[in-house]
Amino acid sequence: MLLDTGLGRQVDAQFAVNNLFHRQVFAYERGDHLPVADQLQRQGWPLKGISMIVPSHMHWDHVSGLPDFPDAEVWATPAEREEADHAHAPAFLHSQFDGVKPWRELRFDGPPVLGFAHSHDVFCDGSVLLLPLGGHTAGQVGMRLSLPSGQRYLFTGDVTWAIEGFNKPADRSWLLRRILPLDHDPAANQAAIVHIYQLMQRHPRTSPWCPRTTRTCSRPCRISPN
Questions:
Q1: Higher local confidence (pLDDT), 203 or 193
Q2: For the chain, what is the mean pLDDT?
Q3: Which of 101, 119, 192, 206 places its Cα 20 to 30 Å from the Cα of 168?
Q4: Would you say 92 and 58 are in contact if contact means Cβ atoms under 8 Å apart?
């Protein structure tokens, strides 16, 4: 499975539908970074070996690579599908997901985990638990990954863009949020920030995996076994 796909092979054509302002604001540089499909093939992984993709949410920079995996089943909550289907650029680019055929409806049908009201156990063994993190988008999904070594990681999507947001806790700047409508439900996203901050206080070894590689968060961090 993949959690998110990042920028895919067709991102330049996908992104071109944006107007000049949004092309400037959300400009990206691929440099020598390969799309995940190319990275997997370089490592000898057949793309058909990816049978499922779980977008943390369906913003353009998280699902650009969906067309690169036409055989993969894509898991999303009804709320996330609904928002994406009725939204538009720059946040959602329909060319990235309108062609998906094998959708699977994600339901949080499991017990509470880490203070989240519900969960979904992907493989029925506790190794991959999906968690509701709606706020940034209507149906954003978090993921707790448990490795055989005992290490655990919490992936938090775009609840914040840097580890400082959880450490303070604080949302992104007021001015930025005024200029751009960053969140589907700002109050719910702020509540998610506070929840993860409190989780980190209760479990000092707990820290989320940041969505961006920054000076203060350039490596994965362990999460408490509790």
A1: 193
A2: 90
A3: 119
A4: yes
Q: Which residues contact 126 (CB under 8 A, 6 or more apart)?
A: 146
pTM: 0.89
- Euclidean distance between the first and the last CA atom of the chain, given in angstroms as a whole number: 24
Q: Which two tokens stand for residue 176?
A: 């930025």
| Partners of 103 in the β-ladder | 74
| Ramachandran region, residue 31 (left: φ > 0; alpha: ψ -120 to 50; beta: rest) | left
Residues in a beta bridge with 188: none
Contacts of 124 (CB under 8 A, 6+ apart): none
CA distance 139 to 81: 8
Digit-coded pLDDT (tens) for 115-165? 999 999 999 999 999 999 999 999 999 999 999 988 888 999 999 988 899
Report whether pLDDT(216) > 50.
no
- Residue 211, both tokens: 């969505």
Within 10 angstroms of residue 112's Cβ, the number of other Cβ atoms is: 10
User: How do residues 44-80 score in pLDDT, each as one tens digit?
Assistant: 999 999 999 999 999 999 999 999 999 999 999 999 9
